[in-house]
Write a structure and sequence with these properties.
Elements: H1 34-40, E1 62-63, E2 83-84, H2 88-97, H3 124-131, H4 165-185, H5 187-211, H6 218-235, H7 239-256, H8 264-289, H9 298-324, E3 328-330, E4 334-338, H10 339-356, H11 365-393, H12 408-428
Helix pairs in contact: 4-5, 5-6, 5-8, 5-12, 6-7, 6-8, 7-8, 8-9, 8-12, 9-10, 9-11, 9-12, 10-11, 11-12
Length: 432
């Protein structure tokens, strides 16, 4: 197909030429025949042709050493093509041209990676374990609880062995005989008995705190309980403030020198709580039996009267509650204490106050009944207070010192509330 110069000025017609292979009249100037080009192309050397990817591996490895540099001006021709290791000479030539020991660098054992240790090389972790001593197991420290609407929710009481009424009665009779015998000996033996009983009760309370992970200053707290008992007996009620101030100061020093970080609020709070509950309330017994408080040892009669009224209230609540008890007094704190038992304990307390207590000088019927009414109110409160304490800790009994009764604190919980009540009643009624 040929074009003239006049054809360049013609308007486009929109008709395209049809190129047909079968039409020999249509030719493209300057084109070569495809068959001739294929014949002129260089053929691939079958020896250097890589195997097909579907063929099985031959195990040959490309050689990385140069054989002979190609001649020519083409810079690419200087790069040798990949070759196969065909014989032993290729491997030997490789070893002669490259020294693998050049890559070996001395490294510090501490800088080595875990996979760079040899078979005989000691592991860094093993060296650290050999150097450092094995840590001692540490008990988890309790932290303060976050605020909850009901701090006792989900705090089930641990079930202890069921108490035998006959065993509890026998223990009570023996204990009463021992106490009355000591009261007969005088004020000093009674002071020793009360101090020892309060120390045992405080020790049980401290042990209860430790059982739930708290860290009270037990030794310091027991020392404060004994000190306040002796001080009140010798110096009167004013000694309580001095001992309490010393306890707070020494508690700070105690936890300041602690080996581990301890929640000071829990530690100091538990220590002062037990001291105030057992030590301060119990020290009213020492205050009354002290010869400086009441003349003619009338304080012994008042303390003994408090013991009689408390035992009567506990015994009446126990037996009447087991016989007729159906409605719990406070199911959340103590489901075993019933309203019927509380009424029975109150009635027996009033009977002891009206009949037995006036036999003990200087008690009178009127004063004994008035004090019996007050004791009948506060003793159940003392029992519920200890039940709340045990429920918070999740324990059934704080001790097993007295068979059938539990621990010492289980026996004197109501008496701790009765002692200050009797002391203030004696002053209110001018019994002293």
């Amino acid at each position: 197909m040929k074009f003239d110069d006049d054809d360049l000025n013609d308007e486009p017609t929109g008709v395209l030429p049809v190129v047909s292979v079968s039409d020999p009249r249509v030719t493209i100037t300057g084109a070569d025949v495809a068959s001739e080009v294929v014949d002129a192309m260089s053929q691939v050397d079958p020896e250097t042709l890589l195997p097909h990817w579907t063929d099985a591996p031959t195990g040959q490895v490309p050689i990385v050493v140069a054989r002979e540099a190609a001649d020519g001006d083409d810079p690419w021709s200087a790069i040798p093509a990949p070759a196969w290791r065909e014989g032993e000479a290729d491997w030997v030539a490789h070893e002669e041209q490259f020294d693998a020991s050049l890559l070996a660098v001395e490294k510090n054992v501490e800088d080595l990676r875990p996979w760079e240790f040899g078979v005989d090389s000691p592991s860094r972790d093993e060296e650290v374990l050999e150097e450092l001593p094995r840590p001692e197991p540490v008990r988890e420290h309790r932290t303060r609880r976050t605020h909850r609407d009901d701090v006792l929710s989900g705090r089930a009481v641990r079930q202890g062995p069921s108490r035998s009424v006959s065993l509890a009665t026998f223990t009570g009779v023996v204990l009463a005989a021992v106490v009355f015998g000591i009261f007969y000996l005088g004020a000093v033996p009674v002071a020793i008995l009360v101090t020892a009983a309060l120390a045992l009760a405080a020790g049980e309370a401290f042990a209860g705190f430790r059982s739930v992970g708290a860290h009270p200053a037990t030794i310091l707290g027991l020392t404060a309980v004994v000190t306040v008992c002796v001080s009140v007996y010798e110096k009167g009620l004013g000694a309580v403030g001095v001992v309490t101030a010393l306890l707070v100061i020494f508690s700070f020093v105690w936890y300041l020198n602690a080996e581990q970080m301890i929640d000071v609020v829990d530690g100091v709070g538990a220590t002062i709580f037990v001291y105030a509950w057992v030590g301060v309330l119990g020290s009213f017994a020492l205050l009354m039996i002290s010869p400086h408080t009441y003349p003619h040892q009338h304080g012994l009669a008042y303390v003994l009267g408090a013991v009689w009224l408390t035992v009567a209230n506990d015994s009446g609540a126990l037996f009447v509650g087991r016989w007729l008890g159906k409605r719990p007094l406070n199911a959340r704190l103590s489901p075993n204490k019933t309203i019927e038992g509380t009424v029975g304990g109150t009635v027996l307390t009033l009977l002891v106050g009206a009949i037995l207590l006036p036999m003990l000088h200087p008690w009178t019927v009127t004063h004994a009944v008035e004090c019996a009414v007050a004791v009948a109110v506060v003793v159940p409160m003392g029992d519920l207070f200890e039940s709340m304490f045990k429920r918070t800790l999740g324990v059934k009994d704080l001790g097993h010192l007295l068979p059938g009764h539990g621990g010492m604190l289980d026996r004197v919980d109501g008496l701790l509330f009765a002692l200050p009540t009797i002391y203030f009643m004696t002053h209110l009624l001018s019994l002293g």
